[in-house]
């Protein structure tokens, strides 16, 4: 696959406001925040979409949620609440094809997260 800008952030080829890193993942501030706190937690392994996950990736993806939990606790919004969400492909609103967990917090978040009026 071609390298995305998230691989460039992992490799420090482009700057990002990195708030957490370990052997498996990196967390940094979203450049266009949709909430007072908006972090992206990404695996260092460049998995393209949720559809491209392999069985051997299950623990890695669980780790992203574990880091989200830790960040929520450390940053003080665990009890108020937050949203951890991953978009997939066009209809899911994915724009960077290296999976990432959005961690949004700091205000009551609307639901549903879309603004169209389509009846299901
Ligand atoms: P997606 O739409 O794929 O679910 O989320 C991609 C996210 O990456 C968006 O929220 C977008 O604001 C963020 N983003 C895109 N380019 C950059 C960048 O260069 N730096 C950072 N920190 N975030 C980015």
CATH-defined superfamily: HIT-like
What CATH architecture do you see?
A: 2-Layer Sandwich
Oligomer class = single chain
Rg, Cα atoms, Å: 14 Å
CATH class bucket:
Alpha Beta
Question: What is the distance, rounded to the nearest whole angstrom, between the alpha carbons of the first and last residues?
Answer: 35 Å
Strand order of the largest sheet: 1-2-3-5-4
| Proportion of residues in extended strands | 15-25%
Do you know the CATH topology?
A: HIT family, subunit A
Q: Can you tell me the residue ranges where pLDDT is under 50 for at least 5 consecutive residues? A: none
What molecules are bound to this protein? guanosine-5'-monophosphate
Largest sheet: 5 strands, antiparallel
Structural class call reads alpha+beta
